[in-house]
Design goal:
Order of helices and strands: EEHEEEEHEHEEEE
Distance between the termini: 5 Å
Number of strands: 11
Shape: globular
CATH class of the largest domain: Alpha Beta
CATH architecture of the largest domain: 3-Layer(bba) Sandwich
Strand order of the largest sheet: 1-11-9-5-6-7-8-4-10
Number of domains: 2
Oligomer: single chain
CATH superfamily of the largest domain: Putative cyclase
Length: about 170
Amino acid sequence: MKIIDLSQPLFTGMSVFPGDPEVEINRVHTYEKESWELRQLRMGTHTGTHVDAFSHMHPGMESLDDIPLAHFFGPAEVVDMKQVWPKETGLFFLEEAGLEILPRILAAGPRFVGGELTEDLERALLSKKIITYTGLIHLDELPKGQRFLFYGFPLKIKDGDGSPVRAVAILDD
């Protein structure tokens, strides 16, 4: 078994989408003073490697705490535009994927899609109750067309529109 971490590290001053809250991580307790460490996090829910809830772009649709956990993990593949895509398998794109591929994605029936997605495609996928992941790294380390298990669980944020995730791919040897 091989585990590939697909998550960006979170740190003060990291790049965020224009207009989103800046990331600030401060140490508020130290070993020397309190005998433990504790950090305070300030950031938006769509920081770094993150998942989008259906409610992110569609009022009245399900938020993170309403979406069953089964939507946040499962079999997946890195695919390109030229190949035949697997059915009922998460799809991840290395190249930018736009709205023109929506019919193909819907025909494949994935629970989640990720990678380089345009905003229009994200919006359309979320309206069809397909989870979207963005800010993933190391997708290029995964062999194209080889199935792996993907896990990208969000924090359980009440009425959450999105959440940073620790996204991982698990490959068989």
